[in-house]
Amino acid sequence: MSDDLSEVVDGISKIGSSLEGIDITRPFSVVKGTIGVIGGIGKTLGGIFGWGTKDKKLQKQIENHQKAIEKLRERYSELKDAMDNAFDIERLAQYNDEMVKNLKTQNANLESMIKAEQDKKKTDNDKIEEYRKQIEANNKAIEEAEQSLTEQLGGFGTKANYKSAAEEFAKTWVDAFNEGSDALEALNNKFDEYFNTMLTKQLMNRATSKYIQPILEAFDKAVSDGSEGGNNGLDVTKKELEGIKELKDKNLALFNEYAKNLMDVLNVKPTGSSNISALQQGIQSVTESTAQALESILNSLRYYVATQQADVRIIRDTLLEKLGNSISAITQDTSSSPVLIELRLQTTILTDIRDTLASCVKGGHKQGRNGIKVFMN
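Structure (tokenized):
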């Protein structure tokens, strides 16, 4: 029996019982029975016109929408995990689309819940505010999902990443300027870093799942339970290792061919020379953390060298001022190279120091070695 019909029947029953309870010989029973009749009539009319049951219906709708949202949230969590672990461009796009649709469906349910709550006789405004906040959070998640896809495909995605990149370009220029190097070249090198990052992500998302993933899965298969060697994967066989090597040779060649074709399609040319030394090759293979440590050391060395150069200039200028007559002949030959002039200068200074010391000491001291010359009147 429906809630409406049940309430009507209950109201009619109450009217009957109230009429039976009226005893005209007892005044108070008439009053009590009349009140019961009025209550029964009110409940009967409420059942007929929907009074009292409307809120129950609306609450039932809200609960159904809430159950649908809970299921959608479980599916969204699964999609997010799959998105985080995906490195295939088609799957990334597929998971992203499903996540956005999931969140929009949640919002549609929340909008229906808001409307149902507003239509209640006793509206709970706190609930409505809670539903609206959930919609705002879902809209933010939709925006973040789209930004995340852009970032995984090699873009920047967010304004925060734009700011970080802009700061890096500005810092690169200032560092090059202070070092006296080519600032434009430094900016182009920084651009190449971001460009190569995009190429790397594009190549990874386009080809690695097809060519590299099978190689990695072959490793796992060889050392997992049920492998050819048995013993829960502890005994790898020669055949399994040869199979991995054969698959590696085949797939890496295909990956290399695909990558070169992709660069041709994108019209991307190598930025460096192929005839590089072993040292340069080693530099290229340095990890990011090692490079950061080396950068800190080099910055310290730059500061140290700059300070030492300043100190040497001060010493040189002081000596030129004090011993100008002794070295004037050396600096007159402007055709000599700067290195030669500096060597001659240092030689002259050392000679003057030696002669000065020689004039102050004399050998043959009774206790051995040299002694200081003393003039006595």
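The beta strands are 361-363, 370-372. Confidence is low (pLDDT under 50) at residues 27-45.
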